[in-house]
Model the fold of this input.
Amino acid sequence: RSDSGAPRRVGGRHPHPCLHPHPAHVPRALTPVRLAGSETAIPTPASTRIPLSDPAL
Done:
């Protein structure tokens, strides 16, 4: 059943579109990843400020 799920991987000639090292596909995939990382970093400091305000309340 696994083979049927990934017939392209079995061939080996056509790797997964995501795994395919395409110059145009790689930057697009990395772009959202980098943006998500920045957003994740922003809430991190915000969480630190929240606990500081909690004791103040």
Notes: Residues 2-41 form one domain. The radius of gyration is 21 Å. The CA atoms of residues 51 and 57 lie 10 Å apart.
